[in-house]
Design a protein that fits this description.
Layout lengths: L9 H9 E17 L4 E16 L2 E15 L5 E3 L8 H23 L4 H13 L4 H5 L11 H7 L5 H16 L6 H13 L4 H11 L4
Antiparallel strand pairs: 1-2, 2-3, 3-4
Helix pairs in contact: 2-3, 2-5, 2-6, 2-7, 3-6, 5-7, 6-7, 6-8, 7-8
Amino acid sequence: MLPVRGRDGRATGFVRRILGCRTAWTPQGDGEFFCPGCGGDRNYQRLAGRRRLTVLGVPVLARGTAEPVVECASCRHRFGTDTLDPPTTRRLSVLLRDAVHAVAVCVLAADGTGSRAALDTAAATLRAAGCEEEAAERLAMATDGGDPRTPLTALAPHLAAPGRESLLLDAALIALADGPYTPAEHAALTTAGEALLLPAEVVERVLTAARMPS
């Protein structure tokens, strides 16, 4: 029997040089993700691993599976598969544009007057969010506000609180462009704030701040 423990550790080191464990990784898929190591969007490869007991570096016995990992194609660092949960920078931009467009249309529909001031403010807000020029021009034809909660709910978990408050503030400024909030506008903005995961007191604070002269 090989010794596994020595007073000075030399026997243990001897065993470790003979016995080992190696993981063989097999590609299972690829895609694009936000790499925490690179700090930007990168391609990745998803890897599944199988552990093998080795003797003198030669695999001799299966030791089960390893947790799957994600390997960045650029930095080659490996991460847990939970790094695929956050959206890429490009995807986050799309989510933001969709949310801004949805809440702008909803507020305009709640206003119901089609005022030039509200339309111009909404169009400027869409352009600032990176929406296409056609989307801003089509605002005047939007008669059904729809439900903004779906795009807002999709965005909210990935946006910090200040960003969510800023989005709600922009929507409030659209509503105020042609005068004080109507009951329908206030209700639409409250619904948007809830979808953005903002507490009721924060929603009211933002709506009140929007009325203050800048």
